[in-house]
C-alpha cells in the first residue's frame, strides 16, 4: 500500500529526495491528461512531470510506435548508423530557429546544457559564463555553477572563477522596465570588465524553477546585441519551455531572437529520456574531438521524439497551448483572492505567485496547503519559485477547456476556504 511505499522511500532514498504532499498518492496509471492512484482515484495532471508530458501520458499514437521500435532494435550507440536519430536531426533542423541545423543528442537537460557550454568554450576559446539570478540549468558541476537559485546549489564549492551572475529583469518591488534597465546595466558592466574571458551567456527564455518569469519582449534582443559586441555566445535553455509549451514551438520565438546554441530536453521524448543541443554549421565545426553520449538519441528515444513532433503538428498543439493558455490565465486573474499576488506566463506555462495575507510576502507554507487541497480535489499542480511559493500550471497540451474550468473552480474553492 501507499504507506508501505512511503516508508520504503524514507529508508532507501537519500533524505534529499523530496516529494510533493504530506500524504502522497501512489500514481499507478496515466492516460493523456489524467493520472490514477492506487485506489483508482482520478487526477487531472496540471504539471505534466515538470513540462515533460506535452502530448499526454501513454498517448497511444506515440507509445505504440515506441513499442514497435523496442521490439525491432533497442540500442546501438551513435557509433553505428540507425535511421531514427538521423531523421530526428533532420526534423529538428526544419523547426529550430534561424540557421541552427546541427544537433548533438544526449539524455538529460543537465547533460545537454553541459555540452552546450563546452561547445561555447571550444568555439570562443574563452572559458567564462554569465547567467541570471533565478535561473536553473541542471545538477552537474558546471550547470549547478550557473544555477542562480540558492536552494538548488547543493554546496559552496561550485565554480566561481569567471562565472558572473546578473539580476533577471524582474523584481517584485519595481516595474519590469526598471528591472530590465538594471539587468542590462549589470550585463554591460560584466562584459566591459570581463568580456575577454567569457564564452557565453546561458539563460532560460522563461525561468521555470525561478517562478515562471518571462522577460520584457525587447530584453533578449538587447542582450544578444551586447553579447555580440564582445564575442560572447548566447545559449538558450529551452529544456522546460520547448515543443509547444508557450504557444510557440520554441519560447525564444516570442522574443524574435536567434540564439547561437539552443538546448532542449523534457518534452521532446514525452517521458522517454532524450535531450539535444543544436547550433549552426559554423559553430558545430568547433566541437572537433570525438564525442558520444552512450544513450543519446538511441533508436527508442529518437523514434518516440519523431512521433512527438508529428503529434504536435497533426493535433495543432501549439495553437492549442496558445488559446487554452489565454483562457487559463484570464480565469486565474479573475479569481478574487488576497492570496494571489500575480499571475504570470504565457501559453500553458502559467505561474501564480502566492502571498501570505498577514505578512504580505511570498508564502511557501500557503502554497503547500493549496497544493495538498487541490490534490484531494483531484488536481495535481506544481510549485516553483525561489522559495517554492508559486503555483505552476504546466499541463499536458492535450487538456481541454473543461479541464481548465474545473481546475480554476477547484482553486477558487480552496482559496475561499483559506480566508
Ligand atoms: N534546464 C531547465 C530549464 C530545467 O528546468 C531543468 C530541470 N528541471 C534542467 C535544465 C535540468 O534537466 P535534467 O533534470 O533533465 O537534467
Automatic annotation (TrEMBL):
<dbReference type="InterPro" id="IPR049704">
    <property type="entry name" value="Aminotrans_3_PPA_site"/>
</dbReference>
<keyword id="KW-0808">Transferase</keyword>
<comment type="subunit">
    <text>Homotetramer.</text>
</comment>
<dbReference type="InterPro" id="IPR015421">
    <property type="entry name" value="PyrdxlP-dep_Trfase_major"/>
</dbReference>
<dbReference type="InterPro" id="IPR015424">
    <property type="entry name" value="PyrdxlP-dep_Trfase"/>
</dbReference>
<feature type="coiled-coil region">
    <location>
        <begin position="177"/>
        <end position="204"/>
    </location>
</feature>
<protein>
    <recommendedName>
        <fullName>alanine--glyoxylate transaminase</fullName>
        <ecNumber>2.6.1.44</ecNumber>
    </recommendedName>
</protein>
<keyword id="KW-0809">Transit peptide</keyword>
<keyword id="KW-0175">Coiled coil</keyword>
<dbReference type="InterPro" id="IPR005814">
    <property type="entry name" value="Aminotrans_3"/>
</dbReference>
<keyword id="KW-0032">Aminotransferase</keyword>
<dbReference type="Pfam" id="PF00202">
    <property type="entry name" value="Aminotran_3"/>
</dbReference>
<dbReference type="InterPro" id="IPR015422">
    <property type="entry name" value="PyrdxlP-dep_Trfase_small"/>
</dbReference>
<comment type="similarity">
    <text>Belongs to the class-III pyridoxal-phosphate-dependent aminotransferase family.</text>
</comment>
<keyword id="KW-0663">Pyridoxal phosphate</keyword>
<dbReference type="GO" id="GO:0030170">
    <property type="term" value="F:pyridoxal phosphate binding"/>
</dbReference>
<dbReference type="GO" id="GO:0008453">
    <property type="term" value="F:alanine-glyoxylate transaminase activity"/>
</dbReference>
